[in-house]
Amino acid sequence: MSTTVCGFIGLGLIGGSIAKAIRSAHPEYEIIAYDVNTETLRLAKEDGVADRVLLEINEEFHNCDMIFLCAPVQKNDENLLLVKRYMKEGCLLTDVGSVKTTIHEAIHAAGLDHCFIGGHPMAGSERTGYINSKAKLLENAYYILTPTDAVSEDMVEKYRELVTDMNALPIILDYAKHDYITAAISHLPHVIAASLVNLVKDSDSEDGVMKMVAAGGFKDITRIASSSATMWQQICLTNTENISTLLNSYIESLQKFKDQIDTHQSEALYNTFDSAREYRDSFINASSGPIKRSFSFNVDIADEPGALAHIATLLAVNNISIKNIGITHNRESEDGVLRIEVYDEVSMNKAIDKLKAMNFVIYLKK
């Protein structure tokens, strides 16, 4: 029985995470990779993730049963034309971009509808590059597939099975519907977060008091503004119509909110906040989605020397790795003075149990 060969064109955060997830689920698969960054290729070979690394897109890709286009959106159109020369019959071509219309149009123009299934793992990080990639990035994340009308059901099913093997959650959508959904729940929030951060920056006093006290709730709701400026520039330029349509609706809702505040409409204000609270609380408490769940909680600790070190040591001796830890100085919307973030739900629950056993007061974040 022949070995399945997977090819990667681009091996950054998402491409690297998919390659690592495939290597973990199917160590028998052969993985070949091309990237413009030679250091990335060196690391992928050294990690044992890539069996072979290439300095150019060439005939080596003819051996592939699946090819992942994982370069930046603006490069994928060019790369698919290059790899088209070498693809064998029956090879599945996919991508990982968060906008699907442009790649589907490019695929159609290239005459590759019969072998293309768009892919969007709804996972990510403020950090970028292969060095920050990990198989767990895909764990319990929705992985949207957007097959063309011409691709076979057999190809779709094989891809769905591979996504499941990577511990992600496959969902099949029409590519146009995908772009509208992601504009609402991912792209627009990034626009809002960036504009809100810039509003505070432009409104702050010379001594930077706003910035100093913004470490609480404001920092949480604008966390995604730390993402790659280049990536979000490209997303706005490729999913323009959907983002603009939803942005208009959002501006109208803000104006309505402003009118309620200006005219002291107490009942309307309550209903607006209460409706948002109820809908927000109905969300599935899972890590799936484009804006990843943070496995974090707050702890009340005494303001005395060694208190923080005591907690860090307690978690360390119980083999719980801390992703981030810090003091919350602004407690206007936060409970607990110490915020701890770990890497997964199992670690979070274990940490909470250990700390509660030592009589620490824990506050879970919604």
Description:
By secondary structure, this protein is of the alpha/beta class. It is 46% helix and 16% strand. Helix 1 (13-25) links the parallel strand 1 and strand 2. The chain is globular and about 65 Å long. The chain starts with a strand and ends with a strand. Mean pLDDT is 89; it is low at 330-335.
Provide keyphrases for this structure.
4-stranded antiparallel β-sheet; 8-stranded mixed β-sheet; 366 residues
| Strand portion | 15-25%
Radius of gyration: 23 Å
Structural class: alpha/beta
- In spatial order, strands of the major sheet run 3-2-1-4-5-6-7-8
How would a textbook summarize the main sheet?
A: 8 strands, mixed
Quick one: overall form?
globular
Helix content: 40-55%
Poorly predicted segments: 330-335
Write a brief caption for the model.
The chain is an alpha/beta fold.
Helices, strands, pairings?
Layout: E1 5-9, H1 13-25, E2 30-34, H2 38-46, E3 52-54, E4 66-69, H3 73-84, E5 92-95, H4 101-109, E6 116-121, E7 142-147, H5 153-165, E8 169-172, H6 175-203, H7 209-213, H8 217-221, H9 229-238, H10 240-262, H11 266-281, E9 295-300, H12 307-317, E10 322-327, E11 338-342, H13 345-357, E12 361-364
Helix pairs in contact: 6-10
